[in-house]
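Sequence in, structure out. Go.
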Amino acid sequence: MPYRSLVWQLPLTIKSDEKMKLEKIIKDVSAFCAGVVVFLLIGGVYLDLKGFEYDGQGNFVLVRPAQAAENEPIKEIPANYAFPQDHVLGSDKAPVTLYEYSSFGCFHCADFHLEVLPELVKEYVDKGQLRIVFVPLPIDKNSMDAALLAECVEEDKYFSFADVLFKKQRDWGLAFRPQKVLMQYAALSGLKNDKAAACLKDDKTAERILRDRQAGLSDLGITGTPSFVVSSKSGNELISGFRPLEDFRQIIDARLAE
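Output:
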């Protein structure tokens, strides 16, 4: 029933100014509800574009497989290129290294971390055959904030915090105050709010992240995230875009067989 009909059915003893106040309140409530509907609709479109789907139980899950860059050639990189070495999984003695250039706000990168990375760890990293190095390559301000906070958590918690950021990508990506949500996740990893606030303003760390980012773009020819460099004694190769697990198996096995 329209809100005006509700107002007209109120007792006639209500004064006109009171009726006007009540009508304004109902208008405001109606406008708010309409805004919520529009927000949810826009949010649904955004989530769909980002690869999320409603599971019927009140949750959005990341389901759309990201595709590799179309016909992107594999590029060669000088054998002596100095890669960042800040965040490492696996032994330094591993014969093959996979450098992952990734953004916390990129759903293709979330695909890799949620679907492929755990299998690579089990099949190669845990056996001493592969070392994985994570290099943050932020694509926007929110992913830069996430990268700055990740730099501040203890190093032995870096990858677990990265997993949280990718799993909760929808929550902080759609938040009205993404910094606040990111700081809450950082707090769960042991980072106090005052330190987290300082980390977000750490220009020195931000400059280092941006230097690595620029080097990836200009020196390696990275055009998007995720991008990977496979490195072994036989050389370095850049691989652009998300690849399924089987592709990584073939690439790594070929390097191990050399």
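Check: The CA atoms of residues 142 and 178 lie 7 Å apart. The chain has a mean pLDDT of 79.
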